[in-house]
Write a structure and sequence with these properties.
It is built from 30 helices and no strands. It is mainly alpha-helical and about 800 residues long. α15 packs antiparallel against α16, α22 runs antiparallel to α24 and α22 crosses α25. It starts with a helix and ends in a 7-residue tail after the last helix. InterPro entries: EXOC6PINT-1/Sec15/Tip20_C_dom2, RINT1_Tip20.
Length: about 800
């Protein structure tokens, strides 16, 4: 049996079977293990079965081999298909990548070859480029030289044309040639050919000056025949025989001078650009915003300028630093005297030429330039003399006012006030204003009639009863306002406004000091005058807060953020200023109102102390022993009340005479309120009343005390609500008082029925609106002969 088994193992069939297994196993290297194991098991089963059959029959060996070969091939195909189902995509991608890499390498090689060829080509053409560049530069130089020569030739042609036109007296053609030169100069403004530009400008200035001198000479001759300049208002102006010819010549010369204006402006710009470093205070820096004057006006100003410099410069007696009004007044007279000539003879020509120039304003502008230079020179010499500087400021302000109002000088053109905006001049002006204001305050407070009203004998004009010192002080502030109102700078105006606030606060402190000295006698004339002064100043400042000028200043404060004026205001207060809900004087008004309230409080306290002393007998009146009214023949004022009533009457009359209307109204209303509380507390709540005592109290109040205040209002009882309503309760009939007391007690115990009226409605029916039910119950308990409930 063992031999058979060995034979089987060594047999070809067994060998082929093992080879087949190894082959299948080798090809299944990339196949999952489950598939390979299943195929091994199936093949082993087949072989074992077949071997058993072979052992039984050897005749089927060939068929078995053929069958195994076919199955082996089928299995190989199956294994190959499974193993090659994924990798072909990866292989294709790898193949494409390799091809791209080959293409890239090829392109890089081509690029390198082309770059090498290009470098070789550039090396070969470098010399050509250098030669070509030199040729182009030479051509460009020749071209620029040709243009330069053409431009130079054109300038010479224009110059020759101007010369030829002047030789044949063709002024218009000469002016046209000069205009062409000026246009060429503007075109060459950015050119770097400095010698060419300099030659052109010198040529332009040469011919411009020649034409200008010729026209100026002819224009001056015509003006002289028309008797220009007009120096005095009574200057005799006779119409010359050839007036029509002169008018025609004047018009022609004016038109020619206006046509020459373009080149003149250009030359003036060149000159001003070359003199930008002029020293401060020179005429070129006085009014930089002012436009230049036209040529005809410049020529017409020359004789006036000569006269001005002759009289107001040098050692002439008219050149007095103490009398700036001399040259200021003279210039205003020249403006006035020349106005008719400018409007009738010069302005029509300007209008026909299409110019928008006002001949009158232009002449005034030229004269203002003369005055500006003089004022700037004089002001620098007056900085250390307060009197001279103050006088100069006053004259400058008056000149500015006359210039703007009488000569229609435009607000956009600067005049003399712009000079005073210089920091040194402005600081000096502020210092002088402060110094003089303080001196005037000292004088006005120490004057003999400082605390008396100027209008005390005129009742219609003395409502505020302001003392003379207060009116003088507010007049001083108004004058300061009028002085700085015309300043063209809001920032400068705000500096003066800050000075005004300082002065008001200083004056308030002075009033407070005097008030403290007089506080021992609040009913004195001086104390009441101080109170009137405080009220007068606060009233005027409130009116100024609604003034257009101060509203404009308020807008400037918010927009410029002036810390000197805003101070330490909170954002809400700044917002109120911006929305015009507040005013610039709110801070001062709060201080003045506080002082006024303090003084009124002192006054009322003194009045009540005096009245309370006089009312002591009345407070101790025996109200229970007064008989009822029916037992008296006629009711009269209680004798104990007479001193109190007389005191109240006299004080009211006195206050009415010495206090302003608004202050007196506050005073008597305050006195009425305090009297109401005093009588209610000290007379009514401190005593018990019989029916006669209650009726007497009501008579004293309604027929004597209330009418004292009836001179100043229609219903004085409305200011004595406690006393009036207490009298109503005390004068109730016994039955009504019992019912009311019962109702009030039940309301306190919260046991009222829904049908019972409320205590408030019951009291309102009686005319009691101010007193509370508990107070009414106390008053009912003060009523004598009322049985307890």
């Amino acid at each position: 049996m063992a031999a058979v088994t060995e034979k089987q193992q060594n047999s070809p069939i067994r060998k082929s079977s093992d080879q087949l297994k190894e082959k299948v196993s080798h090809r299944n290297g990339g196949v999952p293990g489950d598939l390979g194991e299943q195929e091994d098991y199936g093949l082993s089963g087949v072989l074992e079965k077949e071997q058993s059959d072979i052992l039984k029959s050897s005749r089927n060996v060939c068929e078995l081999l053929e069958k195994i070969r076919e199955e082996t091939e089928a299995l190989e195909k199956q294994v190959v298909n499974v193993c090659s189902s994924g990798p072909p995509k990866v292989a294709a991608a790898l193949s494409a990548a390799v091809e791209v890499r080959y293409s890239l390498d090829e392109l890089l090689q081509r690029e390198q070859r082309i770059s090498n060829r290009l470098q070789q080509h550039l090396q070969g053409t470098k010399q050509w480029m250098e030669d070509l560049g030199q040729t182009c530069n030479h051509v460009d130089f020749i071209e620029r030289s040709m243009k330069y020569l053409k431009c130079l030739h054109h300038i010479e042609e224009l110059s020759a044309a101007v010369q030829q036109s002047l030789m044949i007296n063709s002024v218009w053609d000469a002016i046209k040639g000069v205009e062409n030169m000026a246009a060429l100069d503007c075109g060459l403004n950015q050119s770097q050919c400095s010698h060419l530009c300099d030659f052109l400008r010198k040529t332009l200035c040469f011919w411009h000056n020649i034409i200008k001198d010729r026209l100026t000479s002819d224009f001056e001759k015509v003006l002289a025949q028309l008797q220009w300049p007009i120096i005095t208002p009574n200057q005799s102006v006779t119409t010359p025989a050839n007036y029509q010819e002169l008018s025609s010549q004047l018009e022609g010369l004016l038109l020619q001078l206006l046509a020459l204006q373009t080149s003149d402006d250009l030359i003036s710009q060149r000159v001003s650009a070359s003199t930008q470093g002029a020293p401060p205070g020179s005429s070129s820096t006085l009014s930089p915003a002012a436009p230049s004057l036209c040529l005809p006006i410049q020529i017409m100003l020359q004789p006036l300028s000569k006269r001005f410099r002759y009289h107001f410069y040098g050692n002439r007696q008219t050149n007095s630093i103490h009398k700036p009004e001399w040259y200021l007044t003279q210039v205003l007279k020249w403006m006035e005297n020349s106005a008719t000539f400018m409007e009738e003879k010069i302005q029509p020509v300007f209008d026909r030429s299409g110019q928008t120039i006002s001949a009158k304003v232009a002449l005034c502008q030229g004269l203002v330039c003369l005055v500006q230079e003089k004022v700037a020179s004089d002001a620098s010499r007056m900085l250390y003399d307060d009197g001279l500087f103050c006088h100069l400021v006053e004259e400058v302000l008056q000149f500015e006012k006359d210039l703007r109002s009488h000569h229609s000088y435009p607000a956009m053109l600067p005049a003399l006030l712009h000079i005073l905006l210089d920091d040194a001049f402005l600081q000096k002006w502020l210092a002088v204003e402060r110094k003089m204001a303080v001196e005037k305050m000292d004088a006005m407070l120490s004057a003999e009639g400082a605390w008396t009203s100027q209008y005390k004998d005129i009742s219609d004009m003395d409502e505020l009863k302001a003392p003379e010192c207060a009116e003088t002080f507010m007049t001083l502030l108004q004058v300061i306002t009028e002085r700085y109102r015309a300043l063209p700078s809001p920032a400068a105006q705000l500096r003066f406004f800050g000075l005004q606030k300082e002065l008001v606060d200083d004056f308030r402190i002075r009033l407070t000091q005097v008030m403290k000295e007089e506080s021992r006698c609040p009913l004195g004339v001086r104390y009441c005058a101080i109170l009137n002064a405080v009220n007068y100043i606060s009233t005027i400042l409130r009116d100024w807060g609604d003034n257009v000028f101060f509203l404009q200043l308020q807008h400037a404060v918010v927009s410029l953020g002036q810390q000197e004026v805003l101070g330490s205001l909170e954002m809400t207060e700044v917002g109120r200023l911006a929305s015009l809900e507040g005013s610039l004087f709110d801070g001062l008004l709060s201080l003045l109102d506080r002082l006024k309230g303090d003084m009124l409080g002192r006054l009322l306290h003194f009045l009540m102390r005096d009245t309370a002393e006089k009312a002591q007998p009345y407070c101790q009146e025996r109200w229970l022993s007064i008989p009822p009214p029916q037992d008296q023949s006629a009711m009269s004022l209680s004798s104990s009340a007479c001193p109190m009533m007389l005191c109240v009457r006299d004080r009211l009359l006195n206050l009415h005479q010495v206090l302003s209307v608004s202050l007196f109204q506050l005073a008597w209303q305050g006195l009425a309120e305090k009297l109401d509380n005093f009588i209610y507390q000290e007379v009514i709540l401190s005593n018990h009343f019989s029916d006669g005592g209650a009726a007497q109290l009501q008579f004293d109040m309604t027929r004597n005390l209330f009418p004292l205040f009836g001179h100043y209002c229609r219903r004085p009882e409305n200011f004595f609500k406690h006393v009036k309503e207490a009298c109503i309760i005390l004068c109730l009939k016994v039955g009504s008082a019992i019912l009311l007391k019962d109702l009030l007690k039940r309301s306190e115990q919260e046991a009222t029925d829904f049908e019972d009226p409320s205590p408030e409605s019951a009291l309102n029916e009686l005319g009691v609106f101010c007193l509370a039910p508990c107070d009414v119950l106390i008053l009912l308990n003060l009523k004598a002969l009322l049985p307890g409930i």
